[in-house]
Structure formats: structure tokens, C-alpha cells
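Recall that a protein's primary structure is simply its ordered list of amino acids. Everything else, from secondary elements to tertiary packing, is in principle encoded there. The following example makes that idea concrete.
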Amino acid sequence: MSEVIVVIGAGQIGQAIARRIGAGKHVVLADLRQENAEAAAEVFANAGFEVSTATVDVSSRDSVHALVETVAARGEVTGVIHAAGVSPSQASVETILAVDLYGTALVLEEFGNVIAKGGAGVVISSQSGHRLGALSAEEDATLATTPADDLLKLPIVQVDRVTDTLQAYQLAKRANSLRVMAEAVRWGKRGARVNTISPGIIITPLAKDELSGPRGEGYRRMVELAPVGRAGTPDEVGTVGALLMGAEGAFITGSDFLMDGGVTASYFYGELAPR
């Protein structure tokens, strides 16, 4: 039986990780838009990878479950790269919470039921989760452990508490890292690991939407005043993803890796600090 790696959200970051860990395995590229998955698959096939495509709406349990069945039918699921998401300039509060919060919980839950012994997963979160104010211990626990289908009923995500798309995004991304901590315990019982990467501004189509969107000036200021003085690349995230999913990362699980060029450090202790 062949080993299978699934990429959910066939964008540049997910592809970059899969290129590093997918050799000799079957790579399934899944996306909400079939044309995105097929474009990525053509690149992978031309580079010698065994690849297939699937469509998935991560905000639908039926859709995620169908993807699990499709992937598991291909072979032993040894890798899950969850890189699907929407940004504050791309979607409404409701869509952000449905995709980035609920969708991530669904992926972790459904693939946690089939991940193979020795397998690993990585969830692409965001630096934004690190700049949300502290939550209470009870709120942390509810975001981490509430059954996926009850997440959107929590008081903390209701319209009277979430006032704009940026807050929704920050909350969803904070929840992603909390959720991965809790899921790492469950995945560990199957002999598998799962971690989160929280990238800063990485030059992808999503980032370009942000840089040219209503918050573009703020994002450009982040790049300018970050300690490293530039945005990141998908391949840099791919390097960290490969570490976390490979043998050299075998002692790492339930962790979140912030890689934002120092933007969050500058936000708390440097020139990006709120005045």
C-alpha cells in the first residue's frame, strides 16, 4: 500500500511543503476550486510526482469526510498539510469563522481518525493569532476542546463579540494553535504528530490581496519595520514544514512555530508597537 500525502488548499505554501516530503508518495492536492488543484497537479506531475486532485469545502463536514475517504482509498495517510483559509480582506466574519475556525477543527478531527502510525500533520495558521489579546483559561480550553460541530455556537465567536473581519481572523488563528495542542494528544494515541506554523507576510496570492486591500498600508509597514526587513517566501515555510513532518522533527508535536520575520516581536517591543 502506498503512502499518501494530502494537501488541503493547493496554494503556494501547501505546495512548498509537499514538494519536500512527497517524493515516492502519492500526493493528493485538494482545493475548493478544482482548477486550482489541477494547475498545481500539472506542476507536480511535470516534476515527477505521483499526484491526483480532489475538491473540498472545509466548512462542510460531509465534504471533508468525503475527502478523507478518497485519500484513504489511495493508501496509508502519512501526511496532512492543511493550508486552506481566507483572509480578513477576502471574506466576511461568518466565512472566516466557518473556514478558518470550524474548517480547521473538521480537518484535524476527520484526518485524526485515519492518520497512520508515524504520520504527521501541519496546519498553516498565522502571525495574527499571536497578536490577539490574552483569552481566559476557560476560553482557551473551549476553543481547544469543544466538539467541532459546536464551535460556532460558542459565546466568544458570536456577532456581539466579534466586531470585524480582522478580529475574526485573529481569533480563528489563535484557536488553530490551541486546537492543534489538544489534537496532538489524540493523534499521539495513533502514533502520529501534528503542529502549527504561524507565518507572517509570505508572498502568495492571499498576501497580495492583503497588501493591496484596505489594510495594505499597515501590512506594508509591517514588512518595512520587521527586524528582517522583508516578506517571506513559501519555500521558507516549506523548509519548516518539512522539518515538522519529517524524521528530524519526531520529538515535536502540539507546537506552534511563529515565523514572521520578527513582526510580532516588533509589535510588542519595537517600532510596530501600538501608540
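The domain at 3-202+233-265 is CATH 3.40.50.720 (Rossmann fold). The mean pLDDT is 95.
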